[in-house]
Structure formats: structure tokens, C-alpha cells
Design goal:
The complex is a heterodimer. By secondary structure, chain A is mainly β. In chain A, 0% of the residues lie in helices and 49% in strands. In chain A, a hairpin with a 7-residue loop joins strand 9 and strand 10. Helices cover 0% and strands 59% of the residues of chain B. The chains are: A mainly beta, B mainly beta. At the A-B interface, strand 5 of A face strand 5, strand 9 and strand 10 of B.
């Protein structure tokens, strides 16, 4: 099992550009989620999905879109990048929130 | 205000010594409380998961305790090693989401 994979590992964007952060898991997990991690703060939930075709907003969804067309993939789209979106982004998956969450290695995004 | 507060923010200990990290939470009800270890530049990795009815859970040299009455949890690291240098994050599981503390950064010095 590869576990949870994320691409790219690093990305630099200019303000206003759009991009997609990729996340994939091979553990047949129903629950997938995206977090951002900023210095001095806990991980904050951006969006989550409880299964293919089902997504919902987390604490900080503004400026981000997600879709879940398959069980394996859960991409995160930045519509128009802003410097406030400079952060480290983590994708995670699990059978449900009651079970152990497996995190990807993270994507470090810088918006200039 | 964060619903999960951790203390201290950081600490430095000598190799071989013990330390205890604290977590206070205000959220309820919750299904479980977790402690994660996050190495620099990596994603968090689960150490322990406790339901609200459990008082203690161990994973090797890591022991977590939970007092649901006072809404406090602690993580005790025994006989610290250099590899224990990391951020330790307390997490409370709510319906469909997790609430994360900001973490305690532990530095183990030789």
C-alpha cells in the first residue's frame, strides 16, 4: 500500500493563479479530508468527504473547491490564489472519523 | 477560541528524561481523543486513540491519560530519545470532523 499520496510537494503561485492539489489513497477509505497547517495554529479543516459524490465544508472553506468522483481521489482546487493561502496542506483518509486517520506527506504552498 | 488547548507550547528535555504534555478541551460530546506525533516536514502519525470511557492508553514509551470529568488529557513520554523530538498534537473527534490543538514542540537534547 502506498497509503496517502499528495502531489506536488512544493508549489509557488502568483496571486490570482489557480491550481489543483492532488490527493489519493489506496486503502479503500470512505472518509477523506483536507487541512491547512499554519504556524502556531492547529490543523484546520478545509473540506471533507464521507464517500464518493459527497463533500462538505469544514472550518475554512473559502477560496477552495473539492470534488470526490472516486473513492481513491480527493483533489483540492484553489480558484484564485491569495497570499493568505500560503500554508502547508495535508490530505488525510480513514474508514470514518472514529478510526485512525492517515495523513499524506503534505504540500507546501507559497503564494506571492 | 480554539476548542483544544495544549501546554506548554514548547519544551526542551535531556535524553533519557521523562516529560508530560497537557491538553484541555471544551468540545463535547466527542467519540474519542487522540494524540499524534508530527516530525518536521511530515504528516501527523497517530500515537494513541482513547474513547471517552477509557482512562489510559499506552504505545511503547508513550502513555496517554484522559479525565472526561475535568476535560483534560496528558501525554507522558518515558525515557526520552532523540527521535522523540517532534510536535505532539492533541485531537478531539467530533461528528464528521476532528478538532486539533496547536501542538507542543518537544526538543530532546543529548
Amino acid at each position: 500500500n502506498a497509503g496517502v499520496t499528495q502531489t506536488p510537494k512544493f508549489q509557488v503561485l502568483k496571486t490570482g493563479q489557480s491550481m489543483t492539489l492532488q490527493c489519493a489513497q489506496d486503502m479503500n477509505h470512505e472518509y477523506m479530508s483536507w487541512y491547512r497547517q499554519d504556524p502556531g495554529m492547529g490543523l484546520r479543516l478545509i473540506h471533507y468527504s464521507v464517500g464518493a459524490g459527497i463533500t462538505d465544508q469544514g472550518e475554512v472553506p473559502n477560496g477552495y473547491n473539492v470534488s470526490r468522483s472516486t473513492t481513491e481521489d480527493f483533489p483540492l482546487r484553489l480558484l484564485s490564489a491569495a497570499p493568505s493561502q500560503t500554508s502547508v496542506y495535508f490530505c488525510a483518509s480513514s474508514y470514518s472519523t472514529d478510526y485512525e486517520q492517515y495523513f499524506g506527506p503534505g504540500t507546501r504552498l507559497t503564494v506571492t | 477560541k480554539n476548542q483544544v488547548e495544549q501546554s506548554p507550547q514548547s519544551l526542551i528535555i535531556l535524553e533519557g528524561k521523562n516529560c508530560t504534555l497537557q491538553c484541555n478541551y471544551t468540545v463535547s460530546p466527542f467519540s474519542n481523543l487522540r494524540w499524534y506525533k508530527q516530525d518536521t516536514g511530515r504528516g501527523p502519525v497517530s500515537l494513541t486513540i482513547m474513547t471517552f470511557s477509557e482512562n489510559t492508553k499506552s504505545n511503547g514509551r508513550y502513555t496517554a491519560t484522559l479525565d472526561a470529568d475535568t476535560k483534560q488529557s496528558s501525554l507522558h513520554i518515558t525515557a526520552s530519545q532523540l527521535s522523540d523530538s517532534a510536535s505532539y498534537i492533541c485531537v478531539v473527534t467530533l461528528p464528521y470532523k476532528l478538532s486539533f490543538g496547536a501542538g507542543t514542540t518537544v526538543t530532546v537534547r543529548a
